[in-house]
Structure formats: C-alpha cells, structure tokens
C-alpha cells in the first residue's frame, strides 16, 4: 500500500489523489466497483489495490471536489509523466473534466440532456456497440 | 455474520439487476440486492453509454426492427420474444422519463423526446435512487459466492462476503434473480472487470443449463493501452498500417478480423476518425464524453491524428450466450431461480449475433423486469415465512469446497492466467478453428480438474477463487459449444467451416461442471 503524499500519488492506474483537494468524504471508497481504495491516514483514500483498477473513470466522476485523476492508460505511468502535475492538469482543463462533461456538480446541466449522437450514415450497417 | 431473510434476492448491480429489484418490489416483495461492486457504478453500462432498442409501436417500424437482425443472428432469434421485448422496453423507457426515474432525455429540434440512448453514469445513478425509494435493501461490495438450496433442490438464497465490512453474509430468500452480467475474462474492456461469469457458475451448480455459449467471441476496438472500447464510433474510422498506407479490408463492422490478423502478425494498426464531418464530431463528443477522455488526456485528436488500436475481449458481455431461459418470466428451470440481462442468453432477441448496446440494454430492462416479477410471484407461492424457516445448504463447489488436498492460498492467480491464455488471444477465440478450440478445451479441462481439487480461499480470496472457477467453467462451455457448431452462423465463425450448415439450424445447450456436455435445443421457439 502506497499512501498518497501531500500532492501524492499511488503506483496505480488512477495516478493521482490530491490530498490538498480531498475532503475525506469516502465517496471514492464507496463507489469504486472494483474496491481499489481504502481509507488512509487522516481519511485521505489510498490506492490499496491499484492492480484491480479497471480505468472506468467513475471514481473521478463521483469525486465532489475533483481530487482524483484517472490516467488514460491501463498500465502505471513513469514518475515524470505530466499526470502527476496538478497545476498542469488544471491548466489543460483535464482535472474534473469527466464530471464536467457529464454535467455532474452544482449549477451544471446534465450531459444526458444534450447527448444526441451522430447518425452513423445512411448505408452504415446496424450499430453493434 | 450478517444473516438476512427476504422474499426476493437479486444478485448483481447493473441495469438488469436494478430493473429486477424494482419489479419485485412493485409486486409487493421484500427485496435485497447484493452486488459485487457498487450498485450504480458496477458493470459495462455504468462505465459507458448505450443505445436502447426503443421502437415506437408503429407496425412498420416494429417489423423493420425485428427483421433487421434475423439474418445476422443466423435465424436463431424468436419473433414472439422480440415483440414482447420491444413492448416492454418501450413502456419501461417511457416510465424512466417521469416520476422517480426522471432521466434527462434529450429532445429533438421539434421538442420530441429522444429515448433511444442512455448515458451510463446518469442512468445507473438514477436506477439506484429508484430502487432505494422502492424500499430495496442494497448490499454493496458484497459478492455472492454460492447459492443456497433447500431439501428439494429449489434455490433458497445465497451466501457471500462483505468485502468492506470484512465479514461473510447469508440471505435466505423465497427466490433469487441472477443478474450478474456476462463474462469478459478480466480483459480490461470498459467496465467489465466485475463481469467474471459468476452467475452462470452459480446457476450450473444449482442444475441450470446454458445456451448460445458459442456466441462469445466479441472483441471491441480500443486505443492501444486503454480501456475505452466504444466500437460504434469507429464506423467513422479509416484504418492504417505502420507505414501510413490504408489497411485494406479493415473496418469496425465486417473488417475486425483483418485488424486481428495484423495484430497477430506483430504489426500495429492505426485508426483515424477521418470520415466524420464537423457536425458528427461535435455530436460524438456530446453523446459519449467518455470516448474522448483517453484522447484528450493523451493529447490525441482522433479526427486528425492516427493512433494505434487494439482489440479487447468482451466475451459473453457483448456475445449473446448465457443461462438458458425456460419461461416468459425468465425462469431457469430450477425452482426459485431466475436469470436476467447478460447473465441470461440473449438469443431470444438476437439469435447468434451480438445485439450491441441497444439490444443488450433492451434485454436487461425487459428480462430484468420479468425476472423480478416472476421471482416475487414464486416467493409468494411458497407462503409466508417459508423463506426464513426452510433448512438450506450451500450449492457451491469449485474454489469453495475442494475435493482433494487444498492448494496454497492465492492459487486463483494461476487459474486466471490459464483461462486468459486460452481465451484472450485472437487466434484462439476470435479466429476460431476446430483443432485450436479442441486443444484449448483440453487445457481448460485440465485446469478445471486441478482447481476443482485444490482451489479454495477465505474472504476476498474466496471471491477471487470463485471468479477463477467461474471463468474457467465459462470458457469450457464456450469452446464445447463452438466445437458442437462446425459451421459459421451469427458471430460464431469457424475458419475451418466458413459456410452455414442447414442441419445446424438450432440452438445449442451446454452445461455440466466436471464433465461438460452439449446437445441441440428442441426446435420450438426458433423462427424459420
């Protein structure tokens, strides 16, 4: 188990838990479908079972303060990767981007209201995905 | 140990499970829902988005909807079931828009609500709220490890482990609905790592049969190294080779085998969604924001940049095989046991071809609702108090009660590696040939014999042991059924038998644990 440091990270596929942002609400511990988190020291969650992370992004979607960032690759990333740079993620508009896109959070419009996909073409075969 | 008694126990936490719980509660039953993960985020739907087979009751539209898939499915679907699923899905989706559902459906330019699709996180969040309001007791992070049966062999509940409370639990019930999803063998396809085929193992141990297990070779396209298998949008893609030339014959539909062969040969395959116009690009982003998560985070513009892709196994999550359905109420033939969603066979509406999200979603809604009502009726028929008073025994075998000398703890890892080695590679499960299927089946049979003898565990190790057993059983049923269909029908393609054989125009039932068997299903219910 690798506790998240001040702007810490585990070795995991979810590459970042921002202890500065985290309000220790346990929501990620509760909602992770593969039980990756555990409550750590001072309530900040730790990535106790990072190898079970399925990169579904749902912890991030459910984090009320955008303290989590799920890296897009399903393998742990090298230390120097940009995903460990909170300021950089904020600047690039990536921290909390999934929650924003599905319209979760105060004052937002549910993304479902605007979810009208493209026609897959008049001659396209039946959609199978 | 938590010890509960209820009328209906629903196992699972995705769409089929929540619709089942809702229907059972509405029928007056006390309902417990036990999910391996968290009801609201578990499973393939919550992590993505899905079309829904939502067709207004206009006779011409309904006829077209039913006719569109019959050939693709190898003429193994059943028109009567298609019609009742279209009716049920239409009613339930309309209900989802109002009352406690309040799903925020989009509207077209003329204000008409568009109910042919659902965003996963929002849909499953609302389904959780709905079942809580209906009085369903939810046990999150509570994987079931075995069914309980009464003296007559009727299913009478389940036992499991509450992994965050670190305690075992038991629920005695008048009836049980298995809505545990399909099996994707921990391939990493989006949202499917909770889908390890547990329900099919439980059902088989209680005496149920499976059907359509040869239709289990679905693979989804994902950017290399990621989980996001959203294949539909690749209909806008052109596929390329390493040198930038177009990979001839590669396509998301009807050309995935070319992609698989190139990857098997050690080559890379690149995609670019360069056939999407401006309007389509914007619409894609609104419809499936999670499709773009990976690209945005990797700094890739999928419309202008070429990116490497891979194929991830989706097994019976997208494939149609599962627990055989023996009645309109989604009974399984085992008293007290019902099946719904991807855990059940979807051949009734899809035959032998993956229905894609839209059919899967419609099947989950419909079969879930019917199974929940059926389970409530069965429980009621037992009379008051029966669920809590009858003596029960555990029906579980492999991974739980070893027949030989118990192996070392943690042995589930080796079992999972074995089954993944025989199922995930494209040249074994996707590009199927009889000789390779037979060799894989022998390896899997040997793996089963070994794990049946020694595999066991306690707590979360028991859960993992049972998952390993379930995946091994699943793979054996898949390959036994594939060998019993030496032809190409629906998605069950055989390189060594490329044509359809009219003598094999029937469904194939499969079952058994220590010895796997197959037999043709009776012809009834199959459209000509």
Helix fraction of chain B by DSSP (H/I, runs of at least 4): 25-40%
CATH class of chain A: Alpha Beta
What composes the largest sheet of chain A? 2 strands, antiparallel
CATH H-level name of the largest domain in chain B... which superfamily?
Answer: FAD/NAD(P)-binding domain
Using the alpha-carbon principal axes, give the shape of chain B: globular
Shape, principal axes of CA atoms of chain A: globular
Question: Do you know the CATH topology of chain A?
Answer: Alpha-Beta Plaits
Q: Could you name the ranges of chain B where pLDDT drops below 50 across 5 or more consecutive residues?
A: none
Structural class computed from helices and strand pairing of chain A: alpha+beta
How many domain units of chain A?
Answer: 1
Average pLDDT rating of chain A: 80
Q: Please give the order of strands in the largest beta sheet of chain A.
A: 1-4
Domain count of chain B, please report it. 3
CATH class of the largest domain in chain B: Alpha Beta
Tally of helical runs of chain A: 4
Biggest interface between chains: A-B, 46 and 73 residues
CATH architecture label of chain A? 2-Layer Sandwich
Distance separating the two termini of chain A: 37 Å
Number of strands of chain A: 4
Mean pLDDT level of chain B:
95
């Amino acid at each position: 188990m690798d506790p998240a440091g001040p702007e810490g990270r585990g070795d995991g596929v979810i590459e970042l838990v921002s202890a500065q942002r985290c309000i220790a609400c346990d929501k990620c511990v509760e909602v992770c479908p593969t039980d990756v988190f555990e409550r750590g020291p001072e309530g900040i969650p730790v990535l106790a079972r990072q190898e079970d992370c399925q990169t579904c992004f749902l912890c991030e979607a459910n984090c009320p303060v955008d303290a989590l960032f799920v890296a897009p690759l399903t393998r742990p990333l090298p230390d120097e990767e940009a995903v460990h740079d909170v300021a950089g993620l904020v600047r690039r508009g990536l921290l909390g981007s999934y929650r924003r896109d599905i319209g979760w959070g105060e004052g937002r419009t549910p993304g479902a209201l605007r979810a009208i996909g493209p026609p897959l073409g008049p001659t396209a075969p039946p959609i199978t995905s | 140990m938590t010890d509960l008694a209820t009328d209906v126990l629903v196992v699972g936490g995705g769409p089929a499970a929540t619709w089942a719980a809702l229907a059972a509660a509405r029928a007056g039953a006390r309902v417990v829902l036990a999910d391996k993960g968290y009801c609201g985020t578990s499973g393939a739907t919550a992590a993505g988005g899905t079309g829904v087979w939502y067709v207004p009751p206009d006779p011409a539209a309904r006829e077209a909807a039913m006719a569109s898939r019959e050939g693709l499915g190898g003429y193994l679907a059943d028109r009567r079931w298609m019609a009742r699923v279209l009716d049920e899905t239409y009613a339930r989706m309309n209900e989802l828009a109002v009352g406690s559902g309040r799903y925020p459906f989009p509207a077209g330019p003329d204000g008409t609500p568009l109910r042919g699709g659902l965003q996963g996180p929002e849909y499953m969040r609302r389904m959780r709220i709905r079942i809580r309001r209906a009085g369903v007791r939810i046990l999150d992070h509570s994987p079931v490890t075995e069914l309980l049966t009464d003296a007559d062999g009727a299913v009478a509940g389940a036992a499991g482990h509450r992994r965050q409370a670190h305690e075992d639990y038991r629920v005695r019930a008048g009836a049980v609905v298995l809505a545990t999803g399909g099996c994707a063998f921990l391939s990493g396809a989006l949202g499917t790592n909770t889908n390890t085929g547990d329900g099919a193992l439980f059902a088989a141990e209680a005496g149920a049969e499976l059907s359509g297990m040869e239709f289990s070779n679905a693979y989804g396209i994902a950017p290399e190294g990621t989980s996001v298998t959203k294949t539909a949008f690749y209909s806008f893609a052109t596929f390329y080779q390493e040198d930038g030339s177009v990979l001839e014959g590669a396509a998301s539909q009807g050309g995935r085998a070319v992609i698989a062969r190139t990857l098997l040969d050690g080559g890379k395959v690149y995609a670019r969604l360069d056939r999407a116009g401006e309007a389509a690009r914007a619409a894609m982003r609104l419809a499936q924001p999670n499709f773009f998560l990976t690209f945005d985070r990797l700094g890739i513009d999928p419309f202008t940049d070429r990116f490497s892709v891979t194929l991830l196994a989706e097994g019976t999550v997208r494939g149609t095989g599962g627990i055989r359905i023996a009645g309109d109420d989604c009974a399984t033939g085992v008293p007290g046991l019902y099946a719904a969603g991807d855990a059940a066979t979807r051949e009734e509406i899809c035959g032998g071809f993956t229905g894609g999200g839209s059919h899967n979603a419609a099947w989950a809604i419909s079969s879930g609702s019917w199974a929940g009502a059926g389970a409530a009726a069965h429980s009621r028929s037992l009379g008051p108090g029966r669920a809590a008073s009858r003596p029960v025994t555990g029906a579980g075998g492999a991974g739980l009660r070893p027949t030989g000398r118990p192996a070392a703890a943690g042995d589930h890892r080796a079992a999972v590696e074995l089954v993944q080695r025989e199922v995930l590679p494209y040249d074994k499960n996707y590009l199927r040939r009889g000789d390779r299927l037979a060799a894989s089946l022998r390896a899997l049979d040997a793996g089963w014999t070994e794990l049946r003898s020694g595999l066991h565990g306690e707590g979360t190790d028991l859960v993992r042991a049972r998952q390993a057993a379930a995946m091994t059983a699943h793979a054996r049923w898949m390959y036994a059924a594939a060998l019993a269909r030496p032809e190409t029908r629906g998605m069950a393609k055989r390189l060594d038998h490329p044509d359809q054989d009219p003598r094999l125009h029937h469904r194939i039932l499969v079952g058994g644990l220590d010895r796997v068997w197959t037999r043709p299903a009776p012809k009834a219910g199959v459209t000509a």
